[in-house]
Amino acid sequence: MFGEQLIEEIRKKGLVGRSGSCFNTADKWQAVLDAKGDKKYVIANGAEGEPDTSKDFYVMYNHAEDLVRGIILAMHTVGAAEGFLYMREAYHDLMEKKYNNLLKGLPITLFTERPGGYRCGEESTLLNVIERKRAQPRNKPPFPTQKGLWGCPTLINNVETIYTAEQISKGAYQHTRYFTIGGKVKHPGVFLAPEKISVKDLLIITDNEPRGKTFAQVGGGASGEIIIDDDYSRKITGLSAVTIYSEDDVNYLIKKWADFYRRESCGHCVPCREGSYRIYEMTKSNQIDWNELKDIIEVMDKTSFCALGRAIALPYRSLLASGLIKQKVKV
Length: 331
Ligand code: SF4
Description:
By secondary structure, the protein is an alpha/beta fold. The protein has three domains: 4-169, NADH-ubiquinone oxidoreductase 51kDa subunit (Rossmann fold, 3-Layer(aba) Sandwich), CATH 3.40.50; 176-245, Ubiquitin-like (UB roll) (Roll); 250-322, NADH-ubiquinone oxidoreductase 51kDa subunit, iron-sulphur binding domain (de novo design (two linked rop proteins)), CATH 1.20.1440. It has helices spanning 4-13, 25-34, 55-62, 64-78, 89-103, 123-130, 159-169, 199-205, 250-264, 270-284, 290-303, 307-311, 313-322, and strands at 41-46, 82-87, 108-111, 154-158, 176-183, 189-194, 215-218, 225-228, 241-245. A hairpin with a 5-residue loop joins strand 5 (176-183) and strand 6. Helix 4 (64-78) crosses helix 7 (159-169) and helix 9 packs antiparallel against helix 10 (270-284). It is globular and about 60 Å long. The structure holds iron/sulfur cluster. Residues 136-137, 265-269, 272-273, 304-306, 308-309 line the site of iron/sulfur cluster.
């Protein structure tokens, strides 16, 4: 099944982007199909730059044939003559041989970029990287579905999204998705589970119920939300990662986020470039003025040019709201 019939089937199944964006997949495919252009492209994005997530690696490593079939299906469906499969460097080094064999004779290019990582999770940055431009995001609109690679309509989907579309096309989709579980659990790893599962149920069915007081970062090790164990009945949304911590990990986490955002900021806009550096300085010196930090993340959230600068707000805000930080913070 491909073409409009497949788009309708994807719509019926309610598939949304599995990069954490949760954008309606059928709408995106339809937009590229409807867009006017002499040439169109499909890009499967395996950047997976978010710390503590490895479900895209799992999909690319264990379901390579299905993923390639999914890229071809997407190309046929939207009318694209050429496709790309992007992997971050570490993944590329491990899987280059396997994919070069699979892609032989197909109009699909496997590529990586050094450094790429988190930034290439942002779709317009990935376009710039393929075009050999600086790894920074573009103004939107126009969106890639209208003007993407070299100005042509381009479908960019996370690799798990494309793999899932392929499963839908052959009637094998069971409303499941891959979850990464890590941190202080017995069995860290990637697990297939019902897509609308709670943190608590996921930990139970994977034999990962933590002992004692814990909290979780849900949705990725950098941009994920902090929730305390009383709230583990909440459903997992966005990027499907759950990492379990104990209360004495709070300082480590604060520093980890700060270091990550400082390294990943592309430097293109002032709020993210300066804000991420200022937070890094504070956490490094162990002298955190939480009121100042809160002000910085407010500015970054409201004025950063792309999602990376805005993503810093959720982990710090949810940590402050969790009660795990005992200091008084102005509201
Ligand atoms: S928010 Fe950060 S990553 Fe995004 S454009 Fe600005 S500096 Fe670059």
